[in-house]
Specification:
The protein is of the alpha/beta class. The protein has one domain: 3-Layer(aba) Sandwich (Rossmann fold). It has helices at about 1-20, 50-65, 120-130, 175-185, 240-250, 260-265, 270-275, 295, and strands at about 35-45, 75-80, 115, 150-155, 160, 160-165, 170, 190-195, 215, 225-230, 235-240, 280. Helix 2 (about 50-65) packs parallel to helix 5. The protein is elongated and about 95 Å long. One of its GO terms (cellular component) is GPI-anchor transamidase complex. It holds the Pfam family Peptidase_C13. Keywords: GPI-anchor biosynthesis, Signal.
Length: about 350
Amino acid sequence: MDLINRIYCVLFTIATVLSLTYSIEIPEEFQKSNHSNNWAVLVDTSRFWFNYRHVANVLSIYRSVKRLGIPDSQIILMISDDMACNPRNPRPATIFNNAHEQINVYGDDVEVDYRGYEVSVENFVRLLTGRVPPDTPRSKRLLTDEGSNILIYLTGHGGDGFLKFQDSEEITSQELADALEQMWEKRRYNEIFFIIDTCQASSMYEKFYSPNILATASSLVGEDSLSHHVDSAIGVYIIDRYTYYVLEFLENVHPNSKRTMSEFLAVCPKSACLSTVGVRRDLFKRDPDKVPITDFFGSVRPVIITTDPIDILDTPKRKKKPENKTKSPVKREYLSQFPVHLVPNTKTG
């Protein structure tokens, strides 16, 4: 047993060293975050082949947050239409976000949690607020708590104060704000980073009133959010401008990166986006200049490295209880028949 214990201790030591190797120390210029876990809610709200770019948008963000460390178990991916298997797709089971570099964002490891007509306003609000039916599987639940930092990304078609869901219904800015307030009251988040890539996108965060929310939008009220380029092989726009430059920025971010949220908020100037990127930071307590981007896009937990020696092989042994040798053993014997007359309320004849 001693040999087995020593083997386990050695394996534990190796695992500890590896975890320290891939962890980061909090730089002094960053403000400390109180969060203990990261989640992402990524939603494409539009259907039909000509909206191919919206699926590419959401899968681009999905690819980035997963690469930076957020596991699928903490990513809720909602896609309204299956572009990968659309009959018009000349390259089945693929979705590209760049016609020139041929980046396939629909790989073998994509896990879609809500698809097709499951992507509705009701399901989205239920997901955020936790008011899902009891038989809802774990993969369709946002299991966050008061220590969760949540990235919410929405893409689709919108207008002044509303976002369409599959051209059949819409969620208003007030309904979205009320859903986030319910999340705060139920202690379902620590901080939220809200991103929306639609036309007149900034109108969707104007009604927010809950604390600890940082929001950005691809366009201001009265502006359209424009597409980036066409893929001639499929005949439609392949990605939106704002998400294209966001992805370009995130591709240069690694888990130990010191890039800040302020840098992220400036990734798409008007000369590139052709629309004005909106930012709302009055509800957010921390300075975006001092918030690492991995507080929302990654899942690396900072650790404190100690130089004090720790002897993990010195395991305390359990003490055996002293035997009481003076106590005489109890004598027992069998009865020929159980004395039924001794049991109360029992008739003997």
